[in-house]
Amino acid sequence: MSDKKDKDKKKGKIINFVNRSKQNKKIQTDRDEFERLDTLAKELVDVYYKSAKKSFFSIGYCFYLFIFRVLQSMIVQTSFPLYRYWYRTASKEILENYDEWMKEYKDWDGTSINDKVEGKNKPQDENDTIH
After folding, report:
1. What is the pLDDT of residues 94-109, one digit of tens each?
2. CA of 14: how far to CAs of 7, 8, 28, in Å?
């Protein structure tokens, strides 16, 4: 009998957002869903970052592992055209907002896209191949 009570307690902890919103007669909008999933993504990244800081690997390598697994999962779960579209869209948004983020995070040791970036002044016809 105690097993049944334990199962009922576990079931009670699960929140079904769709049923809850139907009960409250709240209309779920795209914005609500975006905010819910964006908050979840931020929480996942924060938890991963806290764990990665404890690793003896560099933080860059730790995030490489995280990004690799996310992209790997994305390409398996969606079609390649969708994967490519969302990957390019995210990359483009990151590059567009880079300078704004650097102003916000002045203590970061990176460089602005418009400042000294390796290969910035390299002639277009020059390549890295040694003949």
Report:
1. 888 887 777 766 655 5
2. 11, 10, 19
Report which of 63, 35, 39, 64 is spatially closest to residue 50, judged by C-alpha positions: 63
Could you identify the residue written with the tokens 């991963």?
48
**C-alpha separations of 84 from 91, 97, 114 in Å:** 11, 20, 27
- The span from the CA of 105 to the CA of 103, in Å, is 6
CA angle (40, 95, 76) in 5-degree steps: 50
Q: Is the pTM of this model over 0.70?
A: no
d(CA 17, CA 40): 14
Question: Three-state SS for 45?
Answer: helix
